[in-house]
From TrEMBL:
Occurrences of domain Ferrous iron transporter FeoA-like (ranges): 2-74
Pfam families xref list: FeoA
Domain of life: Bacteria
This protein's record includes keyword Endoplasmic reticulum: no
Name of this protein: Ferrous iron transport protein A
InterPro entries recorded: Fe-transptr_FeoA-like, FeoA, FeoA_core_dom, Transcriptional_repressor_C
Length: 75
């Protein structure tokens, strides 16, 4: 398992959990549920923010700090 910030552009993964309980509620409300497939699509020049494709249906942008709290299983 790695965190979302460890993925490279184009890599896919499945959300398995979160390390920050308070931030996890915000991410869950944005559709980042355990078992959901995500793909890292964009990375800003200095690495922050990042953009992910969630369930193949929409793009979500987030800070790197938020991405580091999301645990991912590479697929």
């Amino acid at each position: 398992m790695v965190n979302l910030a460890d993925l490279k552009i184009g890599e896919k993964g499945e959300i398995v959990g979160f390390t920050d309980e308070s931030l996890s509620l915000k991410l869950l409300e944005m559709g980042c549920l355990p078992g959901t497939e995500v793909v890292l699509t964009h990375l800003a020049p200095f690495g922050d923010p990042i953009a992910i494709r969630v369930s193949g249906s929409y793009t979500l942008s987030m800070r790197r700090e938020e991405a580091e709290t999301m645990l991912i299983k590479r697929t």
